[in-house]
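FORM 7B: Structural annotation worksheet

SECTION A. Query
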Amino acid sequence: MLVNAVGKAREVAARAGVPPDGAVLGADTGVVVDGEMLGKPVDADDARAMLDRLIGRSHDVMTAICLATPRGELSECDTSIVSMRRLPAQAREWYVGTGEWRDRAGGYAIQGSGAALIDRIEGDYTTVVGLPIGRLVGLLAVTGLAPWEALNP
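SECTION B. Predicted structure
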């Protein structure tokens, strides 16, 4: 994930450039269960298989970020633990039918209808959504780009 986040930031920076007073952000999220990284489902059957592995248990959601600035790159990774409810197959079929699983690591989106699948989260909700705001603000502060920096005379 970190390699992907760095690659995304570098690609945008190469195409558009890094603003002299700003930064380019890259991020990548992955779902890990039983030590295996689940990517994005290729089709509805793959989404069902992923959800079958996640429903009724916990898994890690990891999001890496890279901030490319004129002075270099900073990167971090954050992990949250997500526990899915024990649900009947009917709930899984309902969720797959929403189509929301498309282009989503692990086959679900917590910020949408996928919230109905979740029992609890240990860690930062924004990490699960795909952009760990706490980590990002920390990197922005290190680079002098935190939102409150503009208030300094």
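SECTION C. Observations
The chain has a mean pLDDT of 95. The CA atoms of residues 93 and 124 lie 28 Å apart.

SECTION D. Sign-off
Analyst initials: ____
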